[in-house]
Specification:
The chain has a two-stranded antiparallel ribbon. It has about 425 residues and is mainly α. The chain is about 70% helix and about 0% strand.
Length: about 425
C-alpha cells in the first residue's frame, strides 16, 4: 500500500497540531509513525488458520507424546528425539489461540494493554524458540538415522563417511543417553539465542517508538511487526544458524539416498528392495514437508529485513490525517505473517506424518483410540533397536528392517 500525500491546503491550527504530534521535524517524520492497515488476510484468515491449527496440533501432539512415552516399549535415540519434538510442538500449539487473538484484535489493542504485552513478551519468544528447537532436533535426528542406515544396509562398497569419520562418532549417535543430552543442549541453545532477540524486538524497540509518538499506540504496529535495526541484525544471525542446520539435514538425507541407491542395486532380495523403496519414499516426503513449512519464511525474512532497513531512511511529509496513513510495508508485513503461519503449521503436520509413514506408530495409535490396551500378549515394535538380530539368510533383511522403520518414524517432520 502506498502512503497518501497530504493536501496542499492545511490550516495554521492543523499545522500546529502536527508539529506537536511529531516534534522530531517540522517538515518530515519517520515511517514508523504510520499505521499498518490490516486486510482480511490478517483480520480473518490468520485468526481462523491459527484456531484450526490449535484444534489439530494440540490433540495430535498429546496423542503422539503418549504413544512415544507409554505405548512403544523399546526406547531408542529416535524415540528420545521424537518425544522432545512432540513436547516442542505441544508448547507451540498452546501459543496459537493467542496469535489468533492478536491478528484479530491487535489493531485495536493498545500497546500497553495486558493482552498486547502478553503476546509480545511471552507468546512471541515461545513461538520462535519452539520453531528453532524443531529444526535442531530434526538435524540430530537426521544424523542419527544416517549413522544407523549406512552401517546396517549393504551396498557394493561402504559409505565413504564410515572411513572418514571415527567409529566413536557413529556409536555415540546411536546412544539414548547421548540423545537426551543433545535435546537438553538444544533447548538451552534455542532459549539463549531467541530470548535476547525477542526482548530487544518486542520490548526496547516497541517501547521507544511508543514514546516517540502518541500516534502509534496500537499493538499491531510497525514497531512490533518490523522492529528496529538491532533486532534485525540479531535475527539475521538466527536465520543463518537455521540454514546451517537445514543444510546439515539436507546433506544427511542426500547421502542416505545415495547409499540406498547403491544398496538396491547390490541386493536381489524382494523384501530388501521393498524396505529400501519405502525409506526412499519417506525421506523424499519428509524433505518436501520440511522445505515447504520452514524454508519460505527464512528465505523471505532476510529480504524483508533488507527492505525495512532501506525504508527506515525515508521520511514523509506530515498531514492532517497522518495517523491514519497506511505504512508502505502493510502488505509485506501480512505476507511475512502468512509465511510464519507455515512454520507453525509444522506442529500440526508432524503427528499426521508419523501416522502415515510409520506402521508402528499407526498401529499403536489405532490400538489406543480403540481403548484396547491389553498387555498380555505385548506388541512388538517395528522400530527394533540395532541390537536385534535375525537368523541365517535373513540377516540382511533384518539389518534393513532395523534401520528403515526408525527412519520412517524418527525423521518425520
Amino acid at each position: 500500500m502506498s502512503v497518501s500525500h497530504p493536501s496542499l491546503c492545511v490550516s495554521s491550527d492543523q499545522m500546529e497540531n502536527i508539529a506537536s504530534t511529531f516534534p522530531l521535524d517540522n517538515s518530515s517524520f519517520s515511517s514508523s509513525l504510520l499505521s499498518l492497515c490490516p486486510t482480511a488476510a490478517t483480520l480473518f484468515f490468520l485468526p481462523s488458520a491459527y484456531a484450526l491449527l490449535f484444534l489439530t496440533a494440540l490433540p495430535g501432539n498429546i496423542l503422539s507424546l503418549w504413544v512415544f512415552r507409554r505405548c512403544i516399549s523399546t526406547v531408542s535415540p529416535t524415540h528420545v528425539y521424537l518425544s522432545h519434538l512432540s513436547i516442542s510442538n505441544l508448547i507451540l500449539s498452546l501459543t496459537t489461540p493467542f496469535l489468533a487473538a492478536y491478528y484479530a484484535w491487535g489493531s485495536v489493542w493498545t500497546l500497553s494493554s495486558t493482552w498486547c504485552q502478553l503476546v509480545l513478551h511471552g507468546i512471541t519468544p515461545v513461538l520462535h524458540i519452539n520453531i528453532y528447537i524443531s529444526i535442531m532436533i530434526l538435524t540430530w535426528l537426521a544424523l542419527s538415522r544416517f549413522a544407523s542406515l549406512i552401517q546396517h544396509t549393504h551396498a557394493s562398497r561402504p559409505n565413504r563417511c564410515t572411513t572418514l569419520l571415527p567409529h566413536s562418532f557413529f556409536a555415540r549417535l546411536k546412544r539414548t543417553s547421548f540423545a537426551s543430552r543433545v535435546c537438553a543442549g538444544v533447548w538451552g541453545l534455542a532459549v539463549g539465542c531467541v530470548v535476547p532477540v525477542t526482548i530487544i524486538y518486542s520490548v526496547k524497540e516497541a517501547v521507544s517508538t511508543k514514546a516517540a509518538s502518541r500516534c502509534v499506540e496500537v499493538c499491531y504496529s510497525p514497531a512490533v511487526e518490523i522492529g528496529g535495526s538491532l533486532s534485525a541484525s540479531l535475527t539475521v544471525v538466527v536465520i543463518t544458524l537455521f540454514f546451517l542446520f537445514y543444510l546439515l539435514v539436507l546433506l544427511s538425507y542426500i547421502m542416505v539416498l545415495r547409499h540406498i541407491g547403491r544398496s538396491r542395486r547390490s541386493t536381489s532380495v524382494a523384501t530388501s528392495q521393498s524396505l529400501l523403496g519405502r525409506v526412499l519414499r519417506n525421506i523424499v516426503v519428509i524433505q518436501v514437508v520440511l522445505s515447504v513449512c520452514l524454508l519460505p519464511y527464512h528465505i523471505y525474512k532476510p529480504i524483508f529485513i533488507s527492505l525495512a532497513n532501506d525504508q527506515r531512511q525515508l521520511t514523509y511529509s506530515p498531514g492532517p490525517d497522518t495517523c491514519k496513513q497506511c505504512h508502505p510495508f502493510s502488505t509485506l508485513v501480512e505476507l511475512k505473517n502468512c509465511l510464519l503461519l507455515l512454520t507453525a503449521l509444522k506442529g500440526s503436520t508432524d503427528p499426521l506424518m508419523y501416522f502415515l509413514l510409520d506402521k508402528t506408530f499407526r498401529h499403536q495409535t489405532l490400538k489406543l483410540l480403540r481403548c484396547n490396551r491389553s498387555r498380555s500378549g505385548g506388541t512388538k515394535s517395528n522400530s527394533i533397536p540395532e541390537s536385534n538380530n535375525t537368523k541365517g539368510g535373513q540377516m540382511e533383511d533384518g539389518n534393513l528392517a532395523t534401520a528403515t522403520p526408525e527412519i520412517s518414524q524418527g525423521s518425520v517432520l
